[in-house]
Amino acid sequence: GERGCSLRSRRGPGRSAAPGMSHGVPASGSVLQRSASSDGNQPESPEEDDRKIRRREKNRVAAQRSRKKQTQKADKLHEEYECLEQENTSLKREIGKLTDEMKHLSEVLKDHEKICPLLHCSMNFVTIPRPDALTSCLPR
Predict the structure, then answer these.
(1) Under a CB-based contact definition with an 8 Å cutoff, are residues 78 and 8 in contact?
(2) Gap between the Cα atoms of 31 and 28, Å rounded
(3) 45-51 CB contacts, 8 Å cutoff, 24+ apart
(4) Which of 81-85, 101-105, 121-125 has the lowest mean pLDDT?
(5) How crowded is the C-beta side of 3, counted as CA atoms within 13 Å?
(6) What's the average model confidence in pLDDT over 103-130?
(7) What are 19-25's contacts with CB under 8 Å, separation 24+?
(8) Measured between alpha carbons, how far is residue 57 from residues 25, 29, 49, 109, 140 in Å?
(9) What is the mean pLDDT of the chain?
(10) Mind listing the pLDDT tens digit for each residue in 87-116?
(11) What is the spatial distance between Cα 136 and Cα 121, in angstroms, rounded to a whole number?
């Protein structure tokens, strides 16, 4: 029979990739605070800070785009799966109908063979059957 698809296991909108992460920024504090405090040598210039911020923003946007593309691909595959499932169900139904029709026609043929004068004639395979005998067997 027809059944629903339970393959959707991707993250929905608004769900983050990992606990403690919010929009790509670590929960432990600002990125700039960590980089300045972890670098014991020289404080970074404002230009380097701006460059890092721009690079991280660019990376965040690229990651969002990648996740969106991956989600779209999963949606497309899911739609294709559902279409193939429906087609499969339809074809199975058609196989059932054709099988029933074949059984019925086999029974009709078997019943007809019992009374068909063409099949009982011993000369049937040697000579061409008479047209009047042939038309008596065919449906009108």
Answers:
(1) yes
(2) 9
(3) none
(4) 121-125
(5) 4
(6) 77
(7) 23/60, 24/60, 24/63
(8) 10, 16, 12, 77, 82
(9) 76
(10) 999 999 999 999 999 999 999 999 999 888
(11) 14
- Angle value at C-alpha 12, between 24 and 20, nearest 5 degrees: 35
Q: Which of 21, 46, 28 is nearest to 36 (CA)?
A: 46
Q: Which residues, including other chains, have CB under 8 Å from residue 89's CB and lie 6 or more apart?
A: 1, 2
Secondary element (H or E) of residue 25: strand 25-26
Instruction: Tell me the CB-side half-sphere exposure of residue 94, using CA atoms within 13 A.
Output: 6
Predicted confidence band of residue 17 (pLDDT cuts 50, 70, 90): very low
**DSSP secondary structure letters along 94-129:** HHHHHHHHHHHHHHHHHHHHHH-HHHH-TTTTTSPP
pLDDT of residue 36: 47
> Measured between alpha carbons, how far is residue 79 from residues 48, 67, 71 in Å?
46, 18, 12
Strand partners, 21: 26
